[in-house]
C-alpha cells in the first residue's frame, strides 16, 4: 500500500496539481488548525457554540466566513488569527503611480 504522503510529494511536482492544491490553502488551514488542537468537528462546534454542520461547511469552503467567525475558530483551537495583504506576483504596481 502506498502512503498518501508519498503520493502527495510526487503529485506536488506536477504544476497543475500544485496550482489546485494551493487554491485550497484556506480550507486546509482550518482543517489543520482543528487537527493540531486535537478536536473533532463536533468538539470544535461545541466550543464555538455552533453546530458540527457549520464547521463542516467552513472547512469545505462552501461558506465564506466573516473575520469574527475566523477569530472564534482561532480562539477555539488555541490559535491566533493573522490576516495580511501580500502582493500578487507580477502585479507589483504601486497605487497612485
Helical content band:
55-70%
Count of helix runs: 6
- CATH 2nd-level architecture: Orthogonal Bundle
Largest pleated sheet: none
Mean pLDDT: 88
The overall number of domains is: 1
Rg, alpha carbons: 17 Å
Q: What distance separates the N and C termini?
A: 57 Å
The shape, in one word, is: globular
Number of strands: 0
Percentage of residues in DSSP E strands: under 5%
Here the CATH topology equals 434 Repressor (Amino-terminal Domain)
Oligomeric composition of the shown chains: single chain
CATH top level assignment:
Mainly Alpha
Give the class from helix and strand content and strand pairing: mainly alpha
Uncertain parts: none
Order of helices and strands: HHHHHH
In CATH terms, the superfamily is lambda repressor-like DNA-binding domains
Question: What is the secondary structure topology, with strand pairs?
Answer:
Elements: H1 4-11, H2 15-23, H3 25-36, H4 41-48, H5 52-60, H6 67-76
Helix pairs in contact: 4-5
Verbal overview:
With 97 residues, the chain is an all-alpha fold. It has a single domain, classed as lambda repressor-like DNA-binding domains (434 Repressor (Amino-terminal Domain)). Helix content is 58%, strand content 0%. The protein contains six helices and no strands. It has helices at 4-11, 15-23, 25-36, 41-48, 52-60, 67-76. Helix 4 packs across helix 5. 8% of the residues are buried.
